[in-house]
Amino acid sequence: MPLPTPLPLPDHETVSTAAAGWIEERLVRQPNSLLCLATGGTPMRAYERLAQHARSNPALLAQARILKLDEWGGIPLDRPATCESYLQESLIRPLGLGSRYVGFASQPTDPKQECARIASWLAAEGPIDLCILGLGLNGHLGFNEPADSLQPHAHIATLTPESLSHAMIAAEPVRPTYGLTLGMADLLQSREILLMVTGTSKREPLRRLLDGRISPSFPASFLWLHPRVTLLVDQAALA
Ligand code: F6R
């Protein structure tokens, strides 16, 4: 059954440890897995732990391919707020994974063309094996924002006010003007999905997710259609 009511773990740290273990177990089974990685506050500690373990066991990520889930359009790529900087600092640079890493540019001259580039890369290299996601306060996954309809593949997203208030860009003086994101079909075609949800701010979106009503007004609800979703939550989010 997809999305069984999760047993909560004590806190963000234990969720992060469990998430790193979940990823590692699968990388051992399939070392050349294609990982799609969200950024933001929720998964970064798990990536740090993964990087720590890969330093003592370099075989762990020696063949994995990594795809960045999304990006803030209009913010220079090297600013600390970008999804790029989050991934580069936690995983890509310390482990030297640059040659097996792909992601949206943040200031492409032609954003549509940039989406087409990522879409054709994924069409050739996909599907995603392990998709690591966080839950938006408004139910977004990546920048698949609540709307009347959702888009299947890489696309330019109109950012909602909730996304424009995201903690990642709170201190960033350059405001994003759009988002670049993989689409819902890209996510749902992943072989396995891990969704991490932690903290009191996620109580309401988690409650809505577990409600089980599938609607484009709450994109994460489409996870109910996927047969292999693991949900790791902490007590604060499930309370
Ligand atoms: C970021 C992303 C977003 C976040 C979501 C939750 O790459 O894909 O969808 O996963 O906004 O963000 P946090 O974890 O900061 O609460």
What does this structure look like?
- The protein is of the alpha/beta class and 239 residues long.
- 34% of the residues lie in helices and 15% in strands.
- The chain is built from 8 helices and 9 strands.
- The strands form 2 sheets. It has a 6-stranded parallel beta sheet with strand order 4-2-1-5-8-9. A 3-stranded antiparallel beta sheet has the order 3-7-6, with helices on one face.
- Helix 1 (12-29) crosses helix 2 (44-56) and helix 2 (44-56) packs parallel to helix 3 (83-95).
- It is globular and about 45 Å long.
- It starts with 11 loop residues before the first helix and ends with a helix.
- Fructose -6-phosphate is lined by residues 38-42, 69-70, 83, 134-136, 140-142, 166-167.
